[in-house]
Amino acid sequence: MFKQVLGIVCGAALLSACASNDQGADLYGNANGGWSDDVNISDLSATDTTAKFNEEVTAVVYFPFNSSDLTGEAKSYLSEQAAWLKDNPRALILIEGRCDERGTREYNLALGERRANAARSYLVAKGIAADRIRTISYGKEKPVVLGSTPAAWAKNRNATTVAY
């Protein structure tokens, strides 16, 4: 009897040791591997998956002025992201759409949303499950680079993929 109880305890300990709490599906996902409905984007924090993603692929794609059309370079970077996501099936992503400071707040929020959705659609077309992807538009509200120069504007016209 003692050996049976000991075997059960050891088995449970082994299984819990194999569980990882630094993967998106474990922290923020549901049992099916997609985002949980109760996850608030503003509550997300970086994980080991975030760091690994940033080390292995280009997370930012840039857009021309007043456009949500993907450039050839953007498609290349998104293809890298899709391959990484296929190799890391428990990872979940958030795509953040941004704009430069020109234009109204409302216009830029809509443009940022179109940019994030363009990146999302490309990844879905490459075989990434739609429920692994969330999008948000920051418009011009959360610039990557401060400044009112063409160089700063170009850096802020982007869609940034963050993995969890």
Please, could you describe this protein's structure?
The chain is 45% helix and 13% strand. α5 links the parallel β2 and β3. The protein has 164 residues and is of the alpha+beta class. The chain is built from six helices and four strands, in the order αααβαβαβαβ. The chain is globular. The longest helix has 21 residues. The protein has a domain of 109 residues: 2-Layer Sandwich (60s Ribosomal Protein L30, Chain: A), CATH 3.30.1330.60.
Please name the defining characteristics of this protein:
164 residues; 4-stranded mixed sheet; 6 helices; 45% helix
Largest sheet properties: 4 strands, mixed
N/C terminus separation: 43 Å
Q: What is the C-level CATH assignment of the domain at 55-163?
A: Alpha Beta
Give the overall silhouette. Answer: globular
Under CATH, the topology of the domain at 55-163 can be stated as 60s Ribosomal Protein L30, Chain: A
Query: Helical residue percent?
Result: 40-55%
